[in-house]
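Give me a protein, keeping tokens residue-aligned:
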Amino acid sequence: MTTIASVRLPENVLLPQYDRQQLQTRIVHFGFGAFHRAHQALLTDRVLNSHGGDWGICEISLFSGDQLMSDLRAQDHLYTVLEKGAHGNQAIIIGAVNECLNAKLDSLATIIEKFCEPQVAIVSLTITEKGYCIDPATGSLDEKNTRILHDLQNPSEPHSAPGILVESLHRRRERGLKPFTVLSCDNIPENGHVVKNAVLGMAAKRSAELAKWIAEQVSFPGTMVDRIVPAATPESLAEITRELGVPDPCAISCEPFIQWVIEDNFVAGRPQWEAAGVQMVADVLAWEQMKLRMLNGSHSFLAYLGYLAGFWHISDCMQDSAFREAAYRLMMQEQAPTLRITNVDLAQYADSLLERFANPALKHQTWQIAMDGSQKLPQRMLEGIRVHLARQTDWPLLALGIAGWMRYVSGVDDAGAPIDVRDPMSEKIRAIVENSHETQRVAALLSLREIFAADLVQNPQFVQAIEHAWQRIAQQGAHQAIIDTLKI
């Protein structure tokens, strides 16, 4: 079979400049998804290109990805990242991955033992919010989660990420091996604390001594990640095939911009990521908050309202003057004032975000960004709203964003076409929609305590603002609702 590992690629394609035979599995990564391929693995590859070393990555996927992993093995674990700028593309062959394991291709015992190899120093994760099995209401381990229930009864044969981490650390402790650092790279607030709560919660159910050892010996650094990486499509893969002259089923496209901010707290060493432009800091929280509210909050705003109005891509929204102005005002007038970050030019940051959103080469689907809104709204919009409520300041565009999500999950766009709503809470949301008239829809959806906590639902100003925004969209459609809101 002809693959990128077996042919001579065009001269403009960037290739690994290091000896891949020297790589060891020093990093085990949960979740070989699009973002990881174009972000953490790429930045590790950059370090290897500039400084050499043996920091190889073993990719782990548990519940899907068996075809992707088979394809990856067939091309010697090489894959392509295509950076797509407004003025041209750059194809890069990534060589930092040296092995992969999948629950459908390999035994669970083999997967768990991989975490227990002595040289493993970091276990990183991109498993989305739901993969941590955290109860959103309490921030602690969700003991009703079916995978957690299974793992508590079968600790040596775990199915969840927290269960596998705890079992692996248990075995390392029993064998006298050093622990590893657990590095969450998911786009969730205080991701280091989230994964720490999940792991310690699971460990405490097994053994107080084990939980104490993990708390004292394992580090859980916080991170902030930023790069726009649309999901692969037949069109994007075909474009990469044209660039390479050979297909790469593991390839992914992304924007040129990349940022990674990491709390520098590693118990067993790390790659020299700063050589690739990574910012190693003492505290990530302010950076994370800035990105979640300004970038991700405006992204979600554009995704819900844009999809309702018939825009398929974020770049399409940016071609509309009302959507572009709304995104900028949302960032600068409603999100930026709620932030605690210092020594950052937020106006310049907002301008750069608009330029990235407008990238015509990227084709980032509004439908893709709209997924899993129940997990995203609290940190992207609701936390900022709480600041405004406390200060008695205005937040009409944030209200429109929340109402836009409510219209979106109601399942019909402004043209009357059905919406394929994807969300971990989709069944519960669908039941609420089916059992509530449109005039009671806001009150019905506000009953979702996993999203809207009591402090908001019991605040008349909050409820009234969402009701008004809902009515504006319901009566006029998302596009006109934005225009009218900009006049406020």
